[in-house]
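Q: Convert this sequence to structure tokens.
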Amino acid sequence: MKQHNKQELSYFRLKLRSYMSEHHPERLQDTEFITARADMALTVYCDVVAQGFTHPEAESMASEVLYHGLHFSKYDTLVSVLEDEFERELPAPFPERLSLLLLANKAVQATFAGYELTDTFASDEQYDRLYTELTGTIVLLIESNNLPTVRLTEEASPKAL
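A:
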């Protein structure tokens, strides 16, 4: 039996991979998930076109299936916390790079695990609580591990008289 090393070009697979690279980069290696989800979206698209829906309507319905469960992003949330709360200590591009590392941290994972993260979680009242807890967790990680941050210019230079 021949094995194919090339991945078949799939519009929905490419669309999902592009979305995940921006919002869920930690899951890009999950090719099983990406393939299954892209196949489901393609099936929906073909089925609804066969039922007489227009191509834009079919695209919209297929996209709902493609992105289901992916609208809330832990990665985006961490980037937001780092950009908003640690802007001076961790200027760009540190938030994006550090967010990937933080996603693997057990304390950060435990913080996320305390919430039911649905597609609409970012608009839920619990989001602010998660945001605050993540901020505290990151402060504790920086302090307890003596992680380097960019020192503020005012703090690093002697004050002029």
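The chain is about 60% helix and 0% strand.
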